[in-house]
Amino acid sequence: MASADRFDGGPRSVVVVGAGIVGLSTAWFLQERGVEVTLVDRTGIGAGASGGHPGWITPALALPLNRAAFVANGLKSLLHPKITPAAGLSSFLPRFAAQCRNLSWERNIEANAPLNEEALETFDVLTDNGVDVTVTDGSIAALFRTGRGAEQMLHELRQLESFGRADILATALSGPVLRDRVPVASSDITVGLNIHGQRFVDPQRFVDELGRAVMARGATLRILNVSDVYADPRGGIVVYSRHVEGLTADAVVIATGAWLPRLARRWLKTPVQSARGYAFTVPVNRPIPEPIYLPDIGVSGTPYQGGLRIAGSMEFRPPDAPCVPKRIEEIVAASRPLLDGVLWEERRDEWVGSRPITTDSRPLIGEVAQDIYIAGGHGMWGFTHGPVTGKLLAELVTTGKQSEALRGLDPLR
């Protein structure tokens, strides 16, 4: 839904619940439009999945997640005797599986395409206007044991390209060229794809600097555990936290990532599930100039502080559940045969974070009730799509006009 056009310029005050990259980006672009912003988060800026993300800004890889492998991971979470699955997973998986068809997958690509088209440009807007972080241009080297995997990825890239307006340049890697380009690739890797025109950044620093910029522009940060959001009969929207006086503003944006259902379940018809990923940093004895991707095992590696930041796994558990060390051991075991020169036993900074996944792999961006907005469900691509989400949502909040880019992402679908 979208409110009637706001001839008076829209709300003058907005509370943004959630201080990850989506919430912070929304706050920044609301400030651009003259809105007074209050940020609310239960722990602080960038404490969720944003700060532990691999730091990839990769619209060329932002493909829908509806694949059989994800359903299999969900079933493992249900069947594992020592791991408590996330609530609602047994009903989520059949709806997710129903989208694992070519026509559904292509429809989901088309709906997400506008976010991919503007992703890099919107990062430029932030870094050119006060977010003081170096964003590195580079390629992503996708590595495969056999040519079949490379052919499948190339096919998917061409499908993604067909729904966008920009070409995706991918070149083959093999033989000495592969070894020169990716010195850590083991002999098990026989072919690769170099996906050009992507970027990467230190994710925690980016989120911290974006938060600093938002605060420097006059935002207020409140550390609160929000339990409800509702319309006040006397006017405005109330953000309620137990034992603390509620905050009232002209409008509210809920951008709480994997915790989105706790506040927004009453409005949503598309379920959101918590899918946890793990990450850690390892030293390397060979230079890593650019990110690497191992699609066969769902593991990524990013140059980070002289080493390699490894991320992977897909675990359907509650977002607040503790780290399961076995998951990190599984990532190491799967990656070890494919990468040489990595000092796996010296890993540090082990981390787990929850990503919000919808049944159709499309984010939920828009108005769900008068002056109450949702921004979430980005799955693995919240970092890539966070800034452009903030830009589009700020436009909707302040004008009441839903852009064409958001039509396929309506949170009430």
What does this 3D model show about the protein?
With 413 residues, the chain is an alpha/beta fold. 33% of the residues lie in helices and 27% in strands. The protein has one domain (13-409): FAD/NAD(P)-binding domain (3-Layer(bba) Sandwich). The model is unreliable at 2-7 (pLDDT under 50). Strands 3, 4, 5, 6, 12, 13, 14, 15 and 16 form a nine-stranded mixed beta sheet that branches. Helix 5 (102-127) packs across helix 11 (382-399). It is globular, with a radius of gyration of 21 Å. The chain is built from eleven helices and 18 strands.
Mean pLDDT across all amino acids: 91
Radius of gyration, whole Å? 21 Å
Per DSSP, what share of the residues sits in E-state strands of 2 or more residues? Answer: 25-35%
Terminal CA distance reads 10 Å
What's the main sheet like? 9 strands, mixed
Overall outline:
globular
- Helix fraction, binned, reads 25-40%
Count of domains: 1
CATH class reads Alpha Beta
Number of helices: 11
* CATH 2nd-level architecture: 3-Layer(bba) Sandwich
Pick out the low-confidence regions: 2-7
**SSE sequence, one letter per element:** EHEHEHHHEHEHEHEEEEEHEEEEHEEEH
